[in-house]
Amino acid sequence: MMKLTLIRFGAQEVEIDPQSVIAFPKGLPPFEDCTRYKLFHEEDKPSVFWLQSLDDPSIVFSVTDPALLNVAYDVTLTDEEQALLDMAPDDELLLAVVLYKDETGLNANTRAPIILNTGKRLGLQKMLQEFQLQLSIRGN
Question: What is the pTM of this model?
Protein backbone atom coordinates (compact mmCIF):
# COMPACT_ATOMS: atom_id res chain seq x y z
CA MET A 1 0.00 0.00 0.00
CA MET A 2 1.05 3.60 -0.69
CA LYS A 3 0.02 6.64 1.33
CA LEU A 4 -1.09 9.91 -0.20
CA THR A 5 -2.20 13.17 1.38
CA LEU A 6 -5.24 14.54 -0.44
CA ILE A 7 -4.79 18.31 -0.35
CA ARG A 8 -8.20 18.83 -2.02
CA PHE A 9 -9.91 16.99 0.84
CA GLY A 10 -8.44 18.87 3.80
CA ALA A 11 -5.07 17.11 3.87
CA GLN A 12 -6.75 13.75 4.46
CA GLU A 13 -4.28 10.87 4.30
CA VAL A 14 -5.41 7.77 2.40
CA GLU A 15 -3.88 4.43 1.57
CA ILE A 16 -3.76 3.51 -2.10
CA ASP A 17 -3.57 0.04 -3.51
CA PRO A 18 -0.83 0.16 -6.18
CA GLN A 19 -3.05 -2.08 -8.35
CA SER A 20 -5.63 0.74 -8.55
CA VAL A 21 -3.23 3.31 -9.99
CA ILE A 22 -4.02 4.53 -13.50
CA ALA A 23 -0.97 5.16 -15.69
CA PHE A 24 -1.00 7.94 -18.27
CA PRO A 25 2.20 7.12 -20.19
CA LYS A 26 2.30 10.59 -21.79
CA GLY A 27 0.83 12.43 -18.80
CA LEU A 28 -1.94 14.99 -19.20
CA PRO A 29 -1.21 18.30 -20.94
CA PRO A 30 0.47 20.41 -19.60
CA PHE A 31 1.48 18.00 -16.82
CA GLU A 32 3.42 15.47 -18.90
CA ASP A 33 5.69 14.63 -15.93
CA CYS A 34 2.71 13.39 -13.92
CA THR A 35 1.98 9.90 -15.19
CA ARG A 36 0.38 8.15 -12.20
CA TYR A 37 -3.15 8.98 -11.07
CA LYS A 38 -5.82 7.67 -8.73
CA LEU A 39 -9.54 8.14 -9.26
CA PHE A 40 -11.53 9.14 -6.14
CA HIS A 41 -15.05 10.34 -5.47
CA GLU A 42 -16.81 11.88 -2.51
CA GLU A 43 -19.50 9.62 -1.08
CA ASP A 44 -22.24 12.23 -1.50
CA LYS A 45 -21.18 13.10 -5.09
CA PRO A 46 -21.10 9.87 -7.09
CA SER A 47 -21.20 11.62 -10.48
CA VAL A 48 -18.06 13.72 -10.00
CA PHE A 49 -14.69 12.05 -9.61
CA TRP A 50 -11.29 13.45 -8.71
CA LEU A 51 -8.33 12.38 -10.83
CA GLN A 52 -5.50 12.87 -8.35
CA SER A 53 -1.88 12.92 -9.45
CA LEU A 54 0.32 10.64 -7.37
CA ASP A 55 3.43 12.37 -8.73
CA ASP A 56 2.38 15.88 -7.60
CA PRO A 57 -0.30 16.04 -4.87
CA SER A 58 -1.19 19.61 -5.85
CA ILE A 59 -2.53 18.42 -9.22
CA VAL A 60 -6.09 17.15 -9.22
CA PHE A 61 -8.78 17.27 -11.90
CA SER A 62 -12.52 16.93 -11.41
CA VAL A 63 -13.97 14.64 -14.07
CA THR A 64 -17.36 13.23 -14.98
CA ASP A 65 -19.07 10.98 -17.49
CA PRO A 66 -19.91 13.10 -20.56
CA ALA A 67 -23.27 11.30 -20.87
CA LEU A 68 -24.34 13.03 -17.64
CA LEU A 69 -23.92 16.31 -19.53
CA ASN A 70 -25.89 14.99 -22.52
CA VAL A 71 -22.71 14.82 -24.61
CA ALA A 72 -21.92 11.79 -26.77
CA TYR A 73 -18.66 11.20 -28.62
CA ASP A 74 -17.75 9.44 -31.82
CA VAL A 75 -13.98 9.21 -31.35
CA THR A 76 -11.55 7.23 -33.47
CA LEU A 77 -8.25 6.30 -31.85
CA THR A 78 -5.05 6.23 -33.88
CA ASP A 79 -2.87 3.11 -33.95
CA GLU A 80 -0.46 4.89 -31.59
CA GLU A 81 -3.27 5.70 -29.14
CA GLN A 82 -4.55 2.12 -29.27
CA ALA A 83 -1.03 0.88 -28.53
CA LEU A 84 -0.68 3.40 -25.69
CA LEU A 85 -3.87 1.99 -24.15
CA ASP A 86 -2.71 -1.60 -24.86
CA MET A 87 -6.13 -2.19 -26.41
CA ALA A 88 -7.55 -5.60 -27.14
CA PRO A 89 -10.92 -6.18 -28.87
CA ASP A 90 -12.78 -6.98 -25.63
CA ASP A 91 -11.28 -4.18 -23.48
CA GLU A 92 -13.68 -1.79 -21.81
CA LEU A 93 -12.96 1.88 -22.44
CA LEU A 94 -14.47 4.71 -20.44
CA LEU A 95 -14.62 8.36 -21.43
CA ALA A 96 -14.52 11.26 -19.01
CA VAL A 97 -14.40 15.02 -19.39
CA VAL A 98 -12.51 17.43 -17.17
CA LEU A 99 -14.68 19.94 -15.35
CA TYR A 100 -13.52 23.48 -14.64
CA LYS A 101 -14.98 26.64 -13.18
CA ASP A 102 -14.65 30.07 -14.74
CA GLU A 103 -16.57 33.34 -14.72
CA THR A 104 -19.49 31.70 -16.56
CA GLY A 105 -19.83 28.86 -14.04
CA LEU A 106 -19.04 25.15 -14.23
CA ASN A 107 -17.91 23.91 -17.65
CA ALA A 108 -16.52 20.75 -19.24
CA ASN A 109 -13.54 20.45 -21.55
CA THR A 110 -15.32 18.57 -24.34
CA ARG A 111 -12.44 19.05 -26.81
CA ALA A 112 -10.05 16.85 -24.85
CA PRO A 113 -11.82 13.82 -23.33
CA ILE A 114 -9.93 11.40 -21.14
CA ILE A 115 -10.04 7.80 -22.33
CA LEU A 116 -9.40 4.99 -19.83
CA ASN A 117 -8.75 1.32 -20.48
CA THR A 118 -10.27 0.18 -17.19
CA GLY A 119 -8.91 -3.36 -17.20
CA LYS A 120 -5.34 -2.39 -17.92
CA ARG A 121 -5.48 0.85 -15.88
CA LEU A 122 -4.09 2.93 -18.73
CA GLY A 123 -5.28 6.33 -19.88
CA LEU A 124 -4.72 9.18 -22.27
CA GLN A 125 -6.21 12.54 -23.08
CA LYS A 126 -7.43 12.73 -26.67
CA MET A 127 -6.93 16.20 -28.10
CA LEU A 128 -9.63 16.71 -30.71
CA GLN A 129 -9.21 19.23 -33.49
CA GLU A 130 -12.26 21.33 -34.27
CA PHE A 131 -12.90 19.38 -37.47
CA GLN A 132 -12.63 16.08 -35.55
CA LEU A 133 -15.09 17.11 -32.90
CA GLN A 134 -18.26 15.18 -33.64
CA LEU A 135 -20.47 15.75 -30.63
CA SER A 136 -24.12 15.04 -30.55
CA ILE A 137 -25.72 17.07 -27.83
CA ARG A 138 -28.94 15.47 -26.73
CA GLY A 139 -31.77 17.41 -25.17
CA ASN A 140 -33.26 16.51 -21.83
Answer: 0.82
